[in-house]
TrEMBL record:
Co-factor(s): Zn(2+)
Active site: 237
Pfam family, one: SGL
Cofactor binding description: Binds 1 divalent metal cation per subunit.
Stretches assigned to the SMP-30/Gluconolactonase/LRE-like region domain: 39-297
This protein's name: SMP-30/gluconolactonase/LRE family protein
Length: 313
């Protein structure tokens, strides 16, 4: 059984470059908030509720952790094998669904009254694959990845034929019109904007080794796609960006690498947060967006850090 370190500074937090020390709070340690998931994904913070939502994809549910009580309760079950979650700029939940017995393979928005609006489930008359991760830009547009992972079997969705290529899409925040913004990313997975929204980072999970691609954002289009970094033996999955432009990436593959790997805007590794499980995705939350919530395989972890998450993740 994993136990938190009683020592400060927490030995699980390691600087790979001296620049990381500015983000490390010496009197903060890694906490486990919950365990018992099959594959934890897609955390998103709701400040008004003082709560975090995240997906247990094979468990076909979205869970809610309450900051005040520490209790975890079901938020939505079944969830159509929900994966990535975020909030739009009006504070509404936006969710990527792999699809289940009652439908899915879509991107949805949960309205303030609890009604669920389908934002996109088809493109040019064909069903989406299994929307994976999602971010919302300041203009209200919704950007998401659509690999086929959820339709490859009956564990993270329902097995089905792939009708569309794997792509990155944009849904216009005003018209709802969907467009393809990238079709050359192999296994598009996690994505995040830079703080100024001039760049979009996308994890290419079917590249060997896995890579993080970066694109220049030109209005409603992406240009100049290039490799920011190659992961080597590591496995980046989902990530978010802080206000200084650093990438905090869910990471893992073995006991030495499981956790969160932090890269500066140039793609250089500067820090690592060791966890006993592979981390899939994360987000910043708490009153000041300075608490890092990490969805890692079976469990949810948290760590206070000396930075803040950029808006939109």
């Amino acid at each position: 059984m994993w136990e938190p370190s009683l020592r400060y500074p927490d030995p699980a937090i390691r600087a790979l470059d001296p620049s990381f020390e500015a983000y490390h709070l010496a009197l903060a340690g890694v906490e486990r908030l919950h365990t018992g998931c099959r594959w934890a994904e897609g955390p998103v913070w709701f400040g008004a509720w003082r709560s975090l939502l995240w997906s247990d994809v094979p468990g076909d549910r979205i869970l809610r952790w309450d900051e005040v009580t520490g209790q975890v309760t079901p938020f939505r079950a079944p969830s159509n094998y929900a994966n990535g979650n975020t909030r739009d700029r009006e504070g509404r939940l936006v969710t990527c669904e792999h699809g289940g017995e009652t439908g899915g393979r879509r991107v949805t928005r949960t309205e303030h009254d609890g009604a669920i609006t389908v934002l996109l489930d088809r493109f040019e008359g064909k069903r989406l694959n299994s929307p994976n991760d999602v971010v919302v830009k300041s203009d209200g547009s919704i950007w998401f990845t659509d690999p086929p992972f959820g339709i490859l079997g009956h564990y993270q969705g329902l097995k089905a034929a792939q009708e569309l290529p794997e792509r990155v899409y944009r849904i216009d925040g005003q018209t709802g019109r969907a467009t393809v913004v990238a079709d050359d990313v192999k296994g598009p997975n996690g994505l995040a904007f830079s703080p100024d929204e001039a760049k979009l980072y996308v994890i290419e999970s079917r590249a060997r080794p896995r890579t993080i691609r970066v694109f220049d954002v030109a209005g409603d289009r992406l240009r100049n796609g290039r490799v920011l970094l190659q992961a080597g033996t590591g496995t980046p999955d989902g990530f978010r960006v802080d206000v200084d432009g650093n990438l905090w990436c869910g990471w893992g593959m073995d006991a030495e690498q499981d956790g969160v790997r932090v890269f500066n805007p140039a793609g250089e590794p500067i820090g690592h947060i060791a966890l006993p499980e592979r981390c899939a995705n994360l987000c910043f939350g708490g009153r000041h967006r300075n608490r890092l919530f990490m969805a890692a395989s079976h469990s949810l972890y948290a760590l206070y850090v000396n930075t803040q998450g950029a808006p939109g993740g």
